[in-house]
C-alpha cells in the first residue's frame, strides 16, 4: 500500500467519523435505532426458529 492510498483512507475515515458524530446528530440517532431494530429482529427470528 503506497503512502498516497493510506492518506486517502485516513481522510475517508476522518470524514466518516465527522459525519457520524458532529454534523448530523439525527442521522446518528437513526442509524442507532436501525441497528437496534436489526438486532431485535435477528433475536426474535432466532427464538421463533428455536421454538418451532
Automatic annotation (TrEMBL):
Q: Which residues span the membrane?
A: 29-51
Protein name per its UniProtKB record? Uncharacterized protein
The record's keywords, sorted A to Z, are: Membrane, Transmembrane, Transmembrane helix
Amino acid at each position: 500500500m503506497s503512502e498516497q492510498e493510506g492518506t486517502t483512507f485516513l481522510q475517508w475515515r476522518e470524514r466518516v467519523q465527522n459525519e457520524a458524530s458532529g454534523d448530523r446528530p439525527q442521522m446518528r440517532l437513526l442509524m442507532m435505532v436501525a441497528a437496534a431494530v436489526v438486532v431485535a429482529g435477528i433475536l426474535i427470528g432466532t427464538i421463533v426458529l428455536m421454538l418451532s
